[in-house]
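SUBJECT: A protein chain and its fold
Encoding: whole-number codes for local backbone shapes
Chain under study, with its fold:
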Amino acid sequence: MDEQLRVGLVGAGPWARRVHAPGIADHPGTRLAAVWARRRAAAEELAGGYGAQVCDDPAELLSTVDAVAFAVPPSVQAELALTAAQQGKHVILEKPVGSTVDSVGRLADAVADTGVASLVMLTRRFAPETQSWLAELGRVGGWVGGTARWLSGALLSETHATSEWRHAEGALADIGPHAIDLMDAALGEVTDVLAAHRSRGDLWQLMLGHDGGATSTLTMSLHLPVQPTIVDFSVYGDQGDRTLSGRSTPPQECYTNLLDDFVAMVHSGTAEHPCDVRRGLHLQRVLAAARRAAG
């Protein structure tokens, strides 16, 4: 790259330390320029390892960067990202993008108005095995249904012990966007939540209707002591079935792939991508419909 993007990081929690900061710092097209977090000590600890500036508030961070990556709770992200987009800053967003459809809609409108690049960190979509699986499904066609399981004890671990929004919103908000996104990409746009139920242990079960008539079922929990985590997606139809199992590509590599696309978007002036903020808005609408269906 002729010029590195100056990226500011909002948040200094485990995911920011593990994925965002090293990914941005190591990518040839980006530089970790600034960090802001609610706890200044956490921001200082993170920024110190990469020579990044520690900012006193989000406004200071926005004044020094070209783009912003977010690693904060959804309700915080939606409002801060709105300000960033309105100021012409490109944005890398975590999922879910916000806590309400309205807040994500306002952000999507701002991104469209300013023409900035936006990507949502739908981790598995940036994994080579997922891209190969989806490409094969597209070539073969004829799929009439699918099923997915994502069963984990992540919220029983110390890593997420202090993540208030994850404990409050549960599996639907945290891993739901990933699961819904993959089934949507595999079978066609989700048009209906046909049924939804949340049972003991934060076990979510959804039945989705897709454009074209396919249906799918999703089973998800982050409160089950399953070791190792079960993650599998399968579709079936006229040509048998095709299964995507596990998570063989680590999230750090997926994030690098996301940054490849993000940098290319910024330098080419492209604002559209299968995982841009419009995708986040679509997923937010499905999440809201699922909550309504579950009562």
Observations:
- The domain at 5-122+251-276 is CATH 3.40.50.720 (Rossmann fold).
